Predict the 3D structure of the following.
Amino acid sequence: AFLLLNVILYFLEPSLIAITFSLVLRLFFRNPPMVDMEKHFKGHQLLKDNWKVIQEELMEVLRDEQNIPKFHEVDKIQRFINDGDKSPWRVFMFKAYDNWQEKNCAKAPKTTALLKQIPEITTAMFSILGPQKHIPPHNGFYKGVHRYHLGLVIPKEGECYIINGGQRYDWKEGEGVLFDDTFKHAVWNKTEETRVVLFCDVFRTDLPKIFQPMNRWVYGLREKSQRLQSVLKNAE
């Protein structure tokens, strides 16, 4: 029945197979909410070593902040966690589901060059969180990737943090964190300043070997979805 369901999904909407694949991973694979970067995302060191370069390009991008789309404008499914209130969550997309946003990349060429040296990154963006912004608890649905944040602009006064799977992390400039976003997580910026991180999804290296090639194949199916085509267009 499970195989038949996936065959049907493949012909109806291939990207939905990612949901059933994630369910299988949840059944057979356990991991902590926060993940060791040294073991599972060695490419983080290149980004950390060059965080000042990335920050400089970010500051140029932020000169036109009001024209950077809000997350729910890029991906409509995000509306329930980013309701477009007075303090928005904006995203400047470099790469979405293995598709480069060339117009955006041209505005931050040094950052793009660094990202292109790390092929395990599947999605990359500047995640721009306005003052007093709260992102309510939610779960990522795809267990085949880890999420990475590199602090670029972090408020100096007040609390600004994420809680993932019950564990709290306070962002710091020039420092990164890797986590499994399929755990319930929420974000708070309890300050009057904007918070910006480099936000990346990276293929997991800690899955059993039998799941590694399957993970990349299933992820590739997402590129065929109508939703993704809409996301790519809206992210420009």
Q: What stands out?
A: The longest helix spans residues 17-28.
